[in-house]
């Protein structure tokens, strides 16, 4: 078990806060060495992430990535506008400046926030899809500069192609390989203008991202029901990109809502530390969410978003901060009963490490369950064509269709998941926490946990390539094994690990994409003790497999 820091859930002393000027200086001054693996461009499930002080997210990385994006767009014939947004991390604005220098040099029509403000990830996805609706050519795409909920010292940069969602591995691999080639060649092939010239090029234009998104919200959420019921709502943007969106939403729809803090601070000094004493804007962590959990007692429902607003944390009594899996089950149960215009064939999307409670909800609803590997990119096709009404991850990221059954976003949208909690409360008279307990009484209580264990790169590679036959035996924690999976049943894509299921429990083991650890997700519908049995047996067998031949 991970050791909980004595600083968890508390604000850090000033002496422990990050040195933001040093982080920004490192962004410009440190030059990555492409011969060192940790200093190369590396796209994970959410773009390239790193820290300037570790020489893993620096100006040269962004120059190389943007040259790769420019060439990828040209090769694919993507010649519409490129919508760009940033979050509130210290190096997000510098990275956007760097991107503009390259993109303007290529003459790409770049749309940036009209007030140099912040733009949530789902707003970029919404802008791309809105622009591309009905078009066959001149398609738009987008860039979001964000490391999500990562610490204040980090940076992140992700590309969304014309389908509006996270780029798939074929795209990210192509851009990554080009970028690393440019780094190795000393950036000789990178086109670039000075920022002073680039920002005044006619291809760089200011764009109002706020108004179209805000005015379109009632196509996906019953905003009138929330207003008319007078639901008392508390909102904490956690100093992130949604901070300037909530007041326009409240004003436009007449909501009884309070934004508990609009503070923006690159040190995120207002945050309470996460479990390990580090600052993360993780809206699913009770330690990071300590402020809103306490304030949430005075609201009918309260919610927060991470820094780029693609994740949600829901606070409702009696639970306080809801377990993300519990809220996903409630959201699905409510939506498929209260969206009459959705097709009867519309399925439910979940990642394979999300709770089995979702499986039981899907069966209760009589809906097709589509179980995919980790990564929101797997939901993009289904959300785009309407064959999936909902796509969700255990890490508190989800999106769903408009009320008429058409696509809203193809990236995670923490804003609408928060507003959905208010709609559920308004239309049923019960908050999402109360609904979860109703579901648990009908379908069973789920005991769920994730543990991390150390693994070398070689062991991680071995785990990613496991075959079902390498897991011996036919029982798990006293129950007969019903499946051993290395491919997701929803789309037959490799899960990069192994999932083993029984009637009342399961575990999944997969390597981390960013750390030298592997993760074991496990769940029991029997008891905490049964969950512990599953975890112990899983860790024992996986450890033996990983040590074989070492």
UniProtKB/TrEMBL annotation:
Coiled coil: none
Alphabetically ordered keywords of this record: Isomerase, Magnesium, Metal-binding, Phosphoprotein
Enzyme nomenclature, EC number: 5.4.2.2
Cofactor(s) of this protein: Mg(2+)
InterPro entries linked to this entry: A-D-PHexomutase_a/b/a-I, A-D-PHexomutase_a/b/a-I/II/III, A-D-PHexomutase_a/b/a-II, A-D-PHexomutase_a/b/a-III, A-D-PHexomutase_C, A-D-PHexomutase_C_sf, A-D-PHexomutase_CS, PGM_a-D-Glc-sp
Molecular functions per Gene Ontology: magnesium ion binding; phosphoglucomutase activity; phosphopentomutase activity
A family per Pfam: PGM_PMM_I
Domain Alpha-D-phosphohexomutase alpha/beta/alpha: 41-179, 212-318, 323-441
Enzyme class: isomerase
Family classification: Belongs to the phosphohexose mutase family.
Protein name per its UniProtKB record: Phosphoglucomutase
Organism: Acetobacter estunensis
């Amino acid at each position: 078990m991970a050791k909980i820091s004595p600083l968890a859930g508390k604000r850090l002393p000033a002496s422990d806060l990050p040195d933001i000027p040093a982080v920004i200086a490192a962004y410009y001054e440190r030059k990555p060495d492409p011969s060192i693996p940790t200093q190369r461009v590396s796209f994970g499930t959410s773009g390239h992430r790193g820290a300037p002080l570790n020489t893993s997210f620096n100006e040269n990385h962004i120059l190389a990535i943007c040259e790769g994006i420019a060439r990828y767009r040209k090769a694919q014939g993507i010649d519409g506008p490129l919508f760009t947004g940033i979050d509130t991390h210290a190096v997000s604005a510098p990275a956007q400046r760097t991107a503009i220098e390259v993109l303007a040099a290529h003459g790409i029509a770049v749309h940036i926030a009209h007030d140099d403000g912040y733009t949530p990830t789902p707003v970029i996805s919404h802008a791309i899809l809105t622009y591309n609706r009905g078009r066959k050519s001149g398609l738009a795409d987008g860039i979001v500069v964000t490391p999500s909920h990562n610490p204040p010292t980090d940076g992140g940069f992700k590309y969304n192609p014309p389908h509006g969602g996270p780029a798939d591995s074929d795209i990210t691999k192509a851009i990554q390989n080009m970028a690393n080639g440019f780094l190795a060649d000393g950036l000789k092939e990178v086109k670039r203008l000075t920022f002073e010239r680039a920002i005044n090029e006619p291809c760089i234009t200011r764009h109002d991202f706020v108004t179209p998104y805000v005015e379109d919200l009632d196509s996906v959420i019953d905003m009138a029901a929330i207003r008319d019921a007078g639901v008392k709502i508390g909102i904490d943007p956690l100093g992130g990109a949604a901070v300037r969106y909530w007041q326009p939403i409240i004003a436009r729809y007449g909501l009884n809502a309070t934004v508990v803090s609009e503070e923006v601070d690159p040190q995120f000094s207002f945050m309470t530390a996460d479990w390990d004493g580090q600052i993360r804007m993780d809206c699913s962590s009770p330690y990071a969410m300590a402020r809103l959990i306490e304030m949430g007692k005075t609201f009918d429902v309260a919610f927060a978003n991470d820094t780029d607003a693609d994740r949600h944390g829901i606070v409702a009594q009696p639970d306080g901060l809801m377990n993300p899996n519990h809220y996903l089950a409630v959201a699905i149960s409510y939506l498929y009963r209260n969206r009459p215009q959705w097709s009867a064939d519309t399925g439910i999307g979940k990642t394979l490490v999300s709770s089995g409670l979702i499986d039981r909800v899907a069966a209760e609803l009589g809906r097709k369950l589509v179980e995919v590997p980790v990564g929101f990119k797997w939901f993009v096709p289904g959300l785009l064509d309407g064959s999936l009404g909902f796509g969700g991850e255990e890490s508190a990221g989800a999106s769903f269709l408009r009320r008429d059954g058409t696509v809203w976003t193809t990236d995670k949208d923490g804003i609408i998941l928060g507003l959905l909690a208010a709609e559920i409360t308004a239309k049923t008279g019960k908050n999402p926490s109360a609904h979860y307990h109703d579901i648990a009484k009908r379908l069973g209580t789920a005991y769920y946990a994730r543990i991390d264990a150390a693994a070398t790169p070689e062991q991680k590679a071995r785990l990613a390539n496991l075959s079902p036959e390498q897991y011996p035996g036919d029982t798990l924690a006293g129950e007969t094994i019903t499946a051993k999976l290395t491919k997701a049943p929803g789309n037959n894509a490799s899960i990069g690990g192994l999932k083993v299921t029984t009637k009342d429990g399961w575990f999944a083991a997969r390597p981390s994409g960013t750390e030298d650890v592997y993760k074991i997700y496990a769940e029991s519908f029997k008891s905490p003790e049964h969950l512990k049995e599953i975890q112990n047996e899983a860790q024992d067998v996986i450890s033996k497999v990983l040590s074989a031949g070492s």
